[in-house]
Amino acid sequence: MANPTKIAFLDLVTPHKELEAELLAVVKKAFSNAGFIGGPMVEEFEKEFAAFCGAKYCVGVNSGTDALRFAFMALGVKPGEIIVTVPHTFIATTEAISQAGAQIAFVDIDEQTYTMDPAKLAAYFETRCEWNSKSGELIERSSKRRVAGIVPVHLYGQTADMDPILELAAKYSLFVVEDACQAHGAEYFSKKENAWRRAGSMGKAAAFSFYPGKNLGACGEAGAITTNDEALAARMRMIRDHGQAKKYYHDIEGYNGRLDSIQAGWLSVKLRHLAKWNESRRTLAHRYHELFAELKDSVVIPVEASWTKGVYHLYVVRVQDREALQARLAEAGIATGIHYPIPLHQQKAYEQLGYKVGDFPVTERVASEIVSLPMFPQLLAVQQDEVATAVKEFVGSKVAATR
Ligand SMILES: Cc1ncc(COP(=O)(O)O)c(C=O)c1O
Question: Cα separation of 285 and 100, whole Å?
Fold first, then answer.
């Protein structure tokens, strides 16, 4: 039987208590003019978040899922065209692809970073697709479908290796939409540009989720799209607002996918703390690395590639027998998670795609071994010590049992 939780997986109460006065001031401001949809608070947040990401434009929407979906639609994806992503992500990535009318194709992840493996992407293009030089299109041979774009997912707060992905996109005339829903503030060193770039500034567009548990979280549902393309930003603004740029003049059919003003105001307040919170997550992650160093034969800690500065949305380790580790930690009152236990190509929802077990061996192995440990900016060193002690006891008991 699990004991009552002593160490939460994520503490959302403390930061809201700390910021209560500022957050309530936003509500009062909204009440004073009853401007609940759109308006200055949304526009201010969009400007601030674009600047934070190093992008020119930001379009606030009502979730990360819609951010992805609206980006694909604004990019003009046609029914049945292929968008390539990874099977090791939250289902929202692929839901958005399907809901935009496109077809999902997967390539496997890199075993160290858990993000899209550029070599596997290149292999998919080279062996499964062919370039039609007349039309300037990349076509998947078996389905005869056109490949339209790539969605690298910056998972757990670490960016994918963007240089080679962007190079392949340029070679085959494909768009890149970053799924940055877990990577607010994560950085990537582009060798090509000899510069650090923020998540959200590298693709044709990028999607962010402000689901409450994210590094930058709203107090409800919210999301945003960033881009450097003015026309694309304008199109995404129309799509989120019933296809209108001017009230009741509908150029296209769109959605009700706007960002609420109160959420935007709250996000502006929290954005001022994000750099500090991300730094705290990085410090905690490095401390976990040190605490687990002596367990290196049994516990695989996150690898931060030299080209990335991660923001540790999650701290994910790999162990054999992870259910037993989770049970041991639960006994000690320590909450854990699994992100994600079933790879997308093995989900019932995607049976019709025809993938089978063994198609993405790295994803399958990783998904069976990962455990996410408590990680949030307010986590205390003593709590981390308790987590580490419980993990060490678990590893010790396994070693003793095999003697
Ligand atoms: C990788 C990834 N993509 C997309 C989403 C969807 O975001 P939302 O829940 O805001 O729709 C999430 C959020 O959980 C996510 O983690």
Answer: 37
